[in-house]
């Protein structure tokens, strides 16, 4: 078993309120859940309307599958026109 946690720092330039931010983020979070079968949540910057921190948890049977899912999540957020991916941090979890 392989596992990792991803922290994505995002900028959302076209919104002017927290309500607008949620309207932009919600469909992206749901889409990533569907395309990669991962757990996703907004985990930081909830009070800032043009910034978001998204957390993603991934568990896979082997390292190759895990890397494929990490790449898929990163590529998804990197190619969105209404979001700017500022940074992506991946923390691999050691299984005993």
Hey, roughly how much beta strand do the residues contain? 35-45%
- The radius of gyration computed from the alpha-carbon positions, rounded to a whole number of angstroms, is 14 Å
Q: What's the overall average pLDDT, rounded?
A: 93
CATH architectural category: 2-Layer Sandwich
Task: Please outline what is shown here.
36% of the residues lie in helices and 38% in strands. It is an alpha+beta fold and 96 residues long.
Outline the secondary-structure elements.
Blueprint: E1 2-11, H1 18-36, E2 39-44, E3 51-60, H2 63-78, E4 84-93
Antiparallel strand pairs: 1-3, 1-4, 2-3
Helix pairs in contact: 1-2
Characterization of this structure:
By secondary structure, the chain is of the alpha+beta class. It has a single domain, classed as Alpha-Beta Plaits, CATH 3.30.70. The chain contains two helices and four strands, in the order βαββαβ. It has helices spanning 18-36, 63-78; strands at 2-11, 39-44, 51-60, 84-93. It has a four-stranded antiparallel sheet, covered by helices on one side. Strand 2 and strand 3 (51-60) form a beta hairpin. Helix 1 (18-36) runs antiparallel to helix 2. The longest helix has 19 residues, at 18-36. It is elongated, with a radius of gyration of 14 Å. It starts with a strand and ends with a strand. The model has no long low-confidence stretch (mean pLDDT 93).
């Amino acid at each position: 078993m392989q596992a990792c946690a991803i922290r994505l720092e995002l900028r959302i330039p076209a919104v002017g309120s927290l309500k607008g931010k949620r309207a932009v983020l919600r469909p992206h979070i749901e889409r990533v859940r569907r395309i990669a079968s991962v757990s996703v949540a907004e985990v930081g910057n909830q009070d800032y309307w043009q910034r978001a921190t998204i957390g993603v948890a991934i568990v896979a049977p082997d390292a190759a599958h895990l890397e494929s899912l990490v790449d898929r999540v990163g590529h998804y957020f990197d190619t969105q026109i209404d979001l700017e991916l500022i940074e992506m941090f991946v923390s691999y979890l050691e299984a005993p």
